[in-house]
Write a structure and sequence with these properties.
It contains 18 helices and 12 strands. The protein is an alpha/beta fold. The chain has 3 domains: 135 residues, CBS-domain, CATH 3.10.580; 193 residues, Beta Polymerase, domain 2; 137 residues, Four Helix Bundle (Hemerythrin (Met), subunit A) (Up-down Bundle), CATH 1.20.120. The strands form 4 sheets. The protein has a 4-stranded mixed beta sheet with strand order 9-8-7-10, sandwiched between helices. A 3-stranded mixed beta sheet has the order 1-2-3. The radius of gyration is 26 Å and the shape is globular.
Length: 488
């Protein structure tokens, strides 16, 4: 495996991929002598202690044994008196790089891996994990797994840009880097949300009154974040009695307010359009979300179309993903009943052109703020994202990422395979130029945005960008004709 390829793959691997399923288990009442004998027989360094339901409640390590022996605990002493509790563990679905960073930060040689119910399913050893992340990756992991404080998470955002630059220099395709950047960003979201929930508990608000699923929308939902995306989030709350609305909604208002402000402080700007859980439009129960989706389809007003367009790339990012999957199925049923919503969305989406002039060359802006530059998000990625979304929604494709949608459309016959590959290459060409510009702006201390100076492109880069924009424009025009009947 090429070093650059292995580097990016490390950041997508899970703890379960590198854990050992072999581990010693014991109940809390197990005598110390029996546990120690079991460790010696198995040549193991730790035994996990589980309760009657199989949940992890403690761990007995060689270090614990050394300390307890020094204290001369009798052999018949129950293991629960010598074990370390509470025990630090990692979820089987947790990202490997975060587990490595935590073990290095806390000086742990091994860590139990637990499932969603807290039952141990394996043991993660630091040496085995590090074998998957050799060389300079370890330093990047250390920076990407700072403590969960505001300063620590802000440092993670800075380290993320360094990692993106290294990967781009190693010729990793920009869409793959975007996916990694998005994964890291969503991990920060989850850490902040967990911390905010605990903060509310500490302030006397109590625990979460009903289950919740956090949604992300826009580029986060598609897995296509660039360096500093603003916030696009929402909450799906489990249904609850109307009489409880004052109590329940007050709790989630407090959560949303603290959570979005925390995101803003670590580098995710507040959404200027208010697409955040602080806005009741994006904080609803499951039933209210279903009603809202159908209302957009029925009314198709300009506001309804705008909100639907923002919403359609949603994906679950925290909590039970089930409500989000159910809502995705509800969207498909609504669009089958009201296909005119797609036509209304296409009226807006396909009107936006690409950065090409009349004679097929790059068209730059002449405004005072960005003279001689191109907004490659507005006139590059968004026309492709929007047109692809329309076809994917019409075909009932559940995927939200642009490349995944193109692949699904090609597989279902909704798009010719050659066209899908050409558009995938176009997406890669545009995102490469845009990501590189953002990285250059960041490291030069400039405001990071979406405007690119075409004068800095090589001849080959310019040719690839022009070819890519031409492919995108052909799809845009085709979508406009297919969904609206207009040819200009």
């Amino acid at each position: 495996m090429a070093p650059a390829r292995s580097r990016i793959e490390v950041f997508g691997q899970r703890a379960r991929d590198f854990m050992s399923p072999r581990m010693l288990r014991a109940g809390p009442a197990t005598p110390l002598s029996e546990a120690i004998a079991g460790l010696a027989a198995a040549d193991a360094s730790a035994v996990v202690v589980v309760d009657d339901a199989g949940r992890l409640v403690g761990i007995l390590t060689e270090h614990d044994i050394a300390r307890r022996v020094a204290l001369r605990l009798p052999p018949e002493t129950p293991i629960e008196r010598a074990m370390t509790a509470p025990v630090k563990s990692v979820g089987d679905d947790d990202l490997l790089y975060r587990a490595i960073g935590r073990m290095r930060r806390e000086g742990l040689r091994h860590m139990p891996v637990v499932d969603a119910e807290g039952r141990p399913v394996g043991m993660l050893g630091l040496h085995a994990a590090l074998a998957a992340a050799a060389g300079r990756i370890v330093n990047q992991i250390d920076r990407l797994t700072r403590d969960d404080s505001m300063d620590g998470l802000a440092e993670v955002k800075r380290a993320q840009a360094e990692l993106a630059r290294d990967l781009l220099d190693d010729n990793i395709p920009a869409p793959e880097i975007q996916a990694l950047v998005t994964d890291i960003n969503l991990d920060i979201h989850r850490q902040l949300l967990d911390a905010t929930i605990e903060r509310l508990r500490a302030e006397g608000w109590g625990g979460m009154p009903v289950p919740m699923t956090m949604l992300v929308m826009g580029s986060g939902g598609r897995g296509e974040n660039f360096l500093f995306p603003d916030q696009d989030n929402g909450f799906i709350l489990a249904d609850y009695p109307d009489d409880d609305h004052g109590r329940v909604d007050a709790w989630f208002i407090a959560l949303a307010d603290r959570f979005t402000r925390a995101l803003d402080r670590v580098g995710f700007p507040l959404c200027k359009g208010g697409v955040m859980a602080t806005n009741p439009l994006w904080r609803k129960t499951a039933s209210q979300w279903r009603e809202q989706v159908w209302l957009w389809g029925e009314r198709r007003s300009p506001v309804a179309v705008l909100f639907a367009d923002i919403f359609m790339d949603f994906a679950p990012a925290w909590g039970d993903p089930g409500p989000a999957l159910q809502l995705r199925a509800e969207v498909a049923r609504m669009l089958e009943r009201f296909p005119a919503l797609l036509r209304a969305m296409a009226e807006d989406e396909t009107r936006r052109g690409v950065a090409l002039g009349l004679f097929g060359g790059l068209k730059v802006e002449d405004d005072a703020a960005h003279p001689g530059r191109i907004d490659l998000k507005l006139q590059g990625t968004l026309p492709l994202v929007g047109a692809t979304r329309l076809y994917a929604l019409r075909a009932g494709v559940a995927a939200t990422g642009t490349l995944a949608r193109l692949e699904a459309l090609a597989g279902a016959g909704g798009l010719a395979r050659d066209d899908a590959e050409e558009l995938s290459q176009a997406f890669a060409a545009v995102t490469f130029v845009l990501l590189r510009q953002q990285l250059a702006d960041f490291h030069a201390g400039r405001l990071v945005g979406n405007h690119v100076d075409p004068g800095l492109l090589t001849k080959l880069e310019r040719e690839r960008l022009v070819d890519g924009l031409k492919s995108i424009d052909r799809l845009r025009k085709r979508a406009r004709a297919d969904f609206t009947g207009a040819f200009w």
